[in-house]
Design goal:
Layout lengths: L1 H8 L10 H16 L13 H10 L20
């Protein structure tokens, strides 16, 4: 059971609504932030910044915006 949890910790999620590429980029940027001294929002069981960053992104704790997505047009409600 512990081995299965360990493998899930390193796995890239198979989410159809978001891309694997986006997950990797967001996790890499978060890992860089952790390496530069920012604190993790999770208890640091494993001290590796890459593992912490992947877990934070997987849980949805890292906010990000996709600049390539077109913004919805604002329609006046009068």
């Amino acid at each position: 059971m512990a081995e299965k949890f360990r493998n899930m910790m390193y796995a890239i999620p198979d989410d159809e609504t978001s891309s694997t590429y986006r997950f990797i980029i967001v996790a890499a940027k978060r890992a860089r932030q952790l390496q530069n001294g920012q604190r993790s929002v999770l208890p640091a069981v494993n001290k590796k910044p890459t593992v912490l960053a992947m877990e934070e992104v997987r849980r949805g704790l890292v906010p990000y915006t996709d600049l390539n997505q077109p913004e919805e047009e604002m329609i006046p409600t009068e």
